[in-house]
């Protein structure tokens, strides 16, 4: 396995280096640079006397400590980030004048932060939740932030409802329960009344909300943006990120267990992959729509609860983003990074999507309380690599030292500087959209179809994905206490898919009501006619969209996949090594798991370092398991209940498992004995068969037969 690969140097890394310090070989000092000779004891009036107020070293240390925390993000508090670069494949100057989308081959530095939405900063990674996918491009023309999620749609259509949505999903305000979980009454009270939420909600009930890795999920800009070319011509655009490793998830049972055994599972996975030189990458895809086609769809392009099926507008792959360096300091970088969908560059512009319009206000506003000053753009991680010159001045923690007397424009005393740029010289200009309308506080009727796309999503899933969705709704509603809320949800599920509603209703033991009282779409004003806005029956303008399902048509790369090999003294070196070599040739990671830690000796007398003792690890951390031959080794493993639990969980979670030679004894002692014909459970198979099965992520066809496995 490669270790500590040197990462590319780029303009942003050089910029960060200005503020990066390293204490190796240096004296310890106070913040004022005074060398310190005793860091263990405060200054006292006698060895057993009281501490003296004059102890400036103690005061400085404690004062700094007392103020070390800043408010966590109101949403997306839990996150992990990495540095990298974006490289464009093709010149898109027909559509945009943005350098990042026209300079082919140029490497634009990026910083990317992934997050969960609802949980606190210290919450567990495998919460069922939407994931944030925020990319900061440090372009030569200024910062461009693509602040997206891992689902192509959002819960609500208008920014006005964001505080309501978040208040409903966050822990309930009286007892602050539950943490990082949507399975509670307030959330479902809101969701079942605001039916626009149902589309993103069904994505949240799907496997997308429990990804295997942050490196194995898609990203979406969600809103329709505009691309503007140098002639001022506009095209609509939606942004997509497609992961090189494919889109994969864990099961809910695994998610629950991982949250307990390693709450940092996703954070660790991203960090380790980058440290080991397994740099995650995504291709950037664009759905481009000419202005003339704005109204040709059955949904409104300005409605963030609607996706544009790839069958209607194909995703054009235009570039690739690679993450190749971990942050040096979590707080300075991952915590202090400030994204903003309003950070755009010439050639990119907004649309009137009312959700996007509200976001344009919120993100700067929130940094003022989170980071404490309008100078947050000066923090190293937020600083543009394009030069910054304007007449903004002062405020808390200003670090720039602006020279001269002039802080206004126009001026002669500063020679007219900083001067304005013509559009042709890179000056930003907003798209000159023709606006002709009344000022109204209303929701467009073109936003009122809330059922067609959740239904399309559900129809597009495979049978096993549908089972997971049924399981998720049953779990979430099963956790709610108020029957009226659950009934309303069942009624709405019925509008999406009758079989889905029936299964959930059976699972939670509550009948689907024939009708419910009052209008269900409450997101309209008191003077509006509810019947006009009452979401109608689902339309079917596309039967299925393959891109909405995670079904694999071919194996995906196994690079960085974690494979456990269960061993003890006396194991067969040949079998062990042939699998290990073949797996490592594909950049998978093989970890020796043994009843105890330290080293073990193989049948050829060689010593091998144990990566994890059975007691310190869990089956859910690995993508596959193999057990080499060797009587002594197999017998010792068979003595451990944890071995059997380990294998049973791997079988239950539909993973690839192989038994070599005498290890068949463990197959017969475990749940694997009932799956001898399974296409990912092998006895004496070649390493290539094992790798092929691992590339398919899981054998989901096994799942219906695993319900009896008790782990
Ligand atoms: Fe955010 N969102 N959001 N959001 N959002 C924040 O900004 C907000 C929305 C997203 O890793 C906050 O700096 C409003 C959609 C991500 O630092 C805040 C609305 C999408 C992140 C905020 C939305 C997102 C945030 C909290 C409705 C996907 C984390 C801290 C109008 C396209 C960025 C912060 C990071 C963070 C407001 C809706 C994605 C409060 C008002 C839609 C990935 O400003």
Can you give keywords for this protein?
711 residues; alpha/beta; peroxidase; 18 strands; single chain; Catalase HpII,  Chain A, domain 1; Rossmann fold; disordered N terminus; ten-stranded antiparallel beta sheet; binds CIS-heme D hydroxychlorin gamma-spirolactone 17R, 18S; six-stranded parallel beta sheet
Q: Could you describe the 3D structure shown?
A:
It is built from 19 helices and 18 strands. By secondary structure, it is of the alpha/beta class. Among the domains are: 267 residues, Catalase HpII,  Chain A, domain 1 (Beta Barrel); 145 residues, Rossmann fold, CATH 3.40.50.880. Strand 17, helix 18 and strand 18 form a beta-alpha-beta unit. The longest helix has 17 residues. The N terminus is likely disordered. Bound molecules: CIS-heme D hydroxychlorin gamma-spirolactone 17R, 18S (HDE). The site of CIS-heme D hydroxychlorin gamma-spirolactone 17R, 18S has 26 residues, from strand 2, strand 3, strand 4 and helix 9.
In short:
It is built from 19 helices and 18 strands. By secondary structure, it is an alpha/beta fold. The model is unreliable at 1-6 (pLDDT under 50).
> What is the overall pLDDT average?
96
Give the termini separation: 33 Å
Poorly predicted ranges:
1-6
Percentage of helical residues?
25-40%
Taking Cα atoms only, what radius of gyration do you get, to the nearest Å? Answer: 28 Å
What is the SS-derived class?
Answer: alpha/beta
Strand proportion: 5-15%
| Name of the CATH architecture of the domain at 79-175 and 213-382 | Beta Barrel
Number of E-type strands: 18
As for the CATH topology of the domain at 79-175 and 213-382, it is Catalase HpII,  Chain A, domain 1
Can you tell me the CATH class of the domain at 79-175 and 213-382?
Mainly Beta
